[in-house]
Amino acid sequence: MKEVHKMYMKILIFSFLPLIAHAQSTALEEHTNFWQEIARDSRQNPALHGVAFSSSFSQLDVVADWQRQSEAFVLEKGSGFLLPSACVDSYLRLSDQTAVWGHASYMNGRQHGVSWNSTSDFDLLKPYVLADTLGSDTQRERYRFEGGYATQLNRWLLGAEMLFRADHEYRDIDPRMRGVVNDLTLRVGAGYEKWNYRWAMAFEGNIYKQQNSVEFYRELGVIPEYQMTGLGTEYARFSGDKRSLHYDGGGVRLLFDVEPTQKSGFFGHLELGKRHYRRLVTENYTLPLTELYAQGVKAEIGVRSKEMGSKAIFVDFDYTKRSGDEHIVGTSATSSFPDLGVLTMYHNHRLTTSLTALYGKSFWNVLVRAGYKSDRERYAYPERRLETAHAFGEVSGEAFLKPSERWLLTCRLKSSYSACVSDDLAMPFADMKPAFVAMIRHNYDFAKAHYTDVSAQVRGDYALKNYGLFAELGGGLVHCSAGERQVSAKVAVGVTF
């Protein structure tokens, strides 16, 4: 009978673990669960960020982030990285009406196997980069600082924040690329509570600069650095020995949000943005070569409810139109070159849309997503075209387990599949250099491939009197139908307070 009694006690204890986890819901759960993921866009408005959490939470951690691809999926991004970093995040409620938050981090690591790209921030400035056929590993160093303040005056919500990023990417073997980036963003936002909803608007301004150069020290001489202009084209007149560039630009965004004050009801997010970047040759003179324009619209609308478990369903739409101008430069015997006009040669249209459903109880959440994305690139003359479209699906889950009063375990699993549903490639391969042909074919093979992604993450938090300790381990595997794979791992240890 004693053994039977012990067995029933164990069953009873494990049956009530979910209730214990719910009753002792921590600040960690509030700040990191799936429900905060769906509110990430609205928190870009600092006025809404100030009312996003009811509790204070700070975290100091050291992270090692590692990734390796058996073959680079995108040549310009390389075949993997090892990026150790240290960062601190803090969100403090100073009162029921006022909150402040901040972030500071330092990262110093290595990007492996980068080729056809000698410029930092490739995704931002693509296709207007310096490039060569050799490439190699690059060393990356990053400083990031963010800070914000928000307050509530009766029904009015007011907030402001600043974000600054400084990147230094370089290589200490030929070709010795170096990119120095300064990126500053300012946001101000306001909101008003009416009819049990928060109606908010924010404005963002960004200033961007990058100094970019490539040097050769070897006695065997140099190889050409190409001024890329899109889809395997180059600005031939200034390719070769022109290896010092300057990028400047920035942009603005308007953000509109509506969300329920009681966490039940409909919610929506709309943002309109515009950016502009110039590439200038700075070797002995300053000459604009290309200009990149990007306009985008992003929208989200859905409904959520706290009755009979938390649940939400919402639709996302994200569209970006990118176009590039090339300057027609005349000849001159001096350092001043006449600008004869511009031609819009490059076009890029990106679209992602998805339907997401989220359901959860006090100690677990499940997310299901299905969507479609397309990427269409064109070059005007000679006509070139690269287009791909994918349908994708994702299932993710998280669980909070509390084996004792001091311990909290957070477990996450994710599985996704992306299938190519259409693709098209049109290139004048007969008139292209062999190296350019190989680069385009490689990136096209991976752009039109199918991808299967599986990942897992486990985090353990141990609570002490005034602070907590945690350790986190995660990893993932991506299989590509082109016959290659990607393996990733992440380890973090830190302190919460």
Kindly list the characteristics that best describe this protein.
three-stranded antiparallel beta sheet, 497 residues, mainly beta, 18-stranded antiparallel beta barrel
Helices and strands in order:
Elements: H1 2-23, H2 27-32, H3 34-38, H4 46-49, E1 57-69, E2 80-93, E3 98-114, H5 122-125, E4 130-131, E5 136-153, E6 156-170, E7 176-194, E8 197-215, E9 226-230, E10 233-234, E11 244-260, E12 265-281, E13 287-305, E14 310-329, E15 339-360, E16 364-379, E17 384-401, E18 407-426, H6 434-447, E19 451-463, E20 468-480, E21 485-496
Antiparallel strand pairs: 1-2, 1-21, 2-3, 3-5, 4-9, 5-6, 6-7, 7-8, 8-11, 9-10, 11-12, 12-13, 13-14, 14-15, 15-16, 16-17, 17-18, 18-19, 19-20, 20-21
Report on the structure:
By secondary structure, this protein is mainly beta. It has helices at 2-23, 27-32, 34-38, 46-49, 122-125, 434-447; strands spanning 57-69, 80-93, 98-114, 130-131, 136-153, 156-170, 176-194, 197-215, 226-230, 233-234, 244-260, 265-281, 287-305, 310-329, 339-360, 364-379, 384-401, 407-426, 451-463, 468-480, 485-496. The strands form 2 sheets. It has an 18-stranded antiparallel barrel. A 3-stranded antiparallel sheet has the order 4-9-10, with no helix packed on it. Helix content is 11%, strand content 63%.
Number of helices: 6
Beta-strand segment tally: 21
- Share of residues in strands: over 45%
Helix-residue proportion: 10-25%
The residue ranges in which pLDDT falls below 50 over 5 or more consecutive positions are 1-25
Structural class: mainly beta
Rg estimate, integer Å: 25 Å
Overall, the morphology is globular
SSE run: HHHHEEEHEEEEEEEEEEEEEEEHEEE
N-to-C CA distance: 46 Å
**Largest beta sheet, briefly?**
18 strands, antiparallel, barrel
- Kindly state the mean pLDDT as a whole number? 91
